[in-house]
Amino acid sequence: MWLWLVLLLLSLPGCFSIQGPRSVRGLEGGSVSVQCNYTADWETYEKWWCRGADWTSCQILVQTNGSEQVMKRDRVSIRDNQSHLLFTVTMEDVRQDDTDTYWCGISRHGPDLGTSIKVTIDPVGMILSTWVSPLSRTTISGRAGAPSDSYIRHHYILLVFLKVPILLALVGAVLWLKGPQQRPSIYMNLSSDLVRDTAP
């Protein structure tokens, strides 16, 4: 049973040799960057980015030449950082019809290595379209575990325009409600003091 499982894992394209995020999201009109990591000994091999759910027939959009030189084709560029064992793919001016399954891959003798990534492009109106300027609709990073610049920016926008005013309103309401409750007790204390003072 274990031998069958090991053979199955080793037969998967790119198993252990290349890794990337499972999925990334971007806003229409912006750019999406994906980082794919690979293990040592693959530094000088050609890296590629292809589109299509079927591994055997996906269309290669851009490919390196085995060096660290940036290669660009249409709206897609790729750059290999061999000292850090990763390559970065950037898709610019993305559209909703760019939503698809893509693959980070490494060319080699025999079957290539690869890992699939789901790319989803959302319409601008879906996420705070009135608060996000065209210049800020860029770079949804595909680094696993790292919050994207766009996510952080949207969080601060929500913090300033939504969370802080609500918090201030709640504090104001609590203080306003506490105010009337304290007045009667002060009045009662003053009244009792006056009664005591005037008593024979």
TrEMBL record:
Localisation? Membrane
Q: Which Pfam families match?
A: V-set
One GO cellular component term noted in the UniProt record for this chain: plasma membrane
Record keywords: Isomerase included? no
Q: Name one GO molecular function term.
A: transmembrane signaling receptor activity
Family annotation (Gene3D superfamilies): Immunoglobulins
Keyword field: Disulfide bond, Membrane, Signal, Transmembrane, Transmembrane helix
Where is the secretion signal located? 1-17
Q: Which residues form the Ig-like domain?
A: 13-120
The record's CDD domains line, in alphabetical order, gives: IgV_pIgR_like
Membrane-crossing segments per the record: 156-177
SMART domains per UniProt: IG
- Keyword Kinase among record annotations: no
Q: Which domain of life is it from?
A: Eukaryota
Q: Which PANTHER family match?
A: CMRF35-LIKE MOLECULE 7, POLYMERIC-IMMUNOGLOBULIN RECEPTOR
What's the name of the protein? Answer: CMRF35-like molecule 7
